[in-house]
Amino acid sequence: MEQSRGAVDQTQKELEAARARLTTAQARVREAETNAARAARDVERLRGLLAKDEIAQQLFDTTVAAAEAQRAAADSAKSLVVEAEAGVRVAESKLVQSRAGEQQAQASLRSAQTGPEQIAVIRARADAADARVQQAKAAVDQAELNLKYTVIAAPTKGIVSRKSVEVGQVVQPGQPLMALIPLDTVWITANFKETQLRNMRPGQPVTIQVDAYGGRDLKGRVDSIAAATGARFSLLPPENATGNYVKVVQRVPVKIVLEAGQDPDRMLRPGMSVVPTVVTK
């Protein structure tokens, strides 16, 4: 009898310990869900700032990775709660079995009934392990993302000019390091007199002579005509305030684009002098 009472007392202690673990797991779930909700709100808040280019892409990606890690931690905590609940049920079943030890047949039946609970424990452990795997995967993804930040890719291909950085130099955010000239999209800005624009329209063919290459002829077309004269866009536009009117022929910028395949060797450079001739008839 005393042996049976000792078994009952031991099972009671196990049940109290299982309930304590369940309470602790539930508290961890509430904490993890609070952290995950806060991280999700941070992501939504930064998403709006990212759309306005007010924050860096790196900060947004880091916040998203942290939110995913918090969600994985919440899932792991929930799995621990399931495991603790199953443990409580198992402990309760053992307590019942201890109190009904004299009824061997009934105890055997109840022991068989704990089979699904044990399966639930195993499944809960598997879910907890899967949640830990997801959390580790989120950490790996964050590490890979940080590794990508060590490589700065140019937005387009071209030729580097005015390079002011060397290997091993420490740079600051916003510091200009070099100029990138995209030679595949070179165009010409021709400052025609306003008296030459009478019959000029976008789409008209243009012949361009490049002074740097012995008057080499290139083919192009008029892309657009500026909305105002070059003087209007200058730093200090001229204003006649003396009362004496002198008519000055103004210059209007006209954008000319080259036909495809005109410069396969990319010999043209920004700032070169050319002589364009627009075919208006």
Account of the protein in words:
The chain has 281 residues and is α+β, with helices and mostly antiparallel strands. It has two domains: 2-148, no CATH class; 182-278, Elongation Factor Tu (Ef-tu), domain 3 (Beta Barrel), CATH 2.40.30. Helices cover 49% and strands 15% of the residues. It contains four helices and seven strands; from the N terminus they run H-H-H-H-E-E-E-E-E-E-E. The strands form two sheets. The protein has a five-stranded antiparallel sheet, with no helix packed on it. A hairpin with a 5-residue loop joins strand 4 (205-210) and strand 5 (216-225). Helix 1 runs antiparallel to helix 2, helix 2 (57-99) runs antiparallel to helix 3 and helix 2 (57-99) runs antiparallel to helix 4. The model has no long low-confidence stretch (mean pLDDT 79).
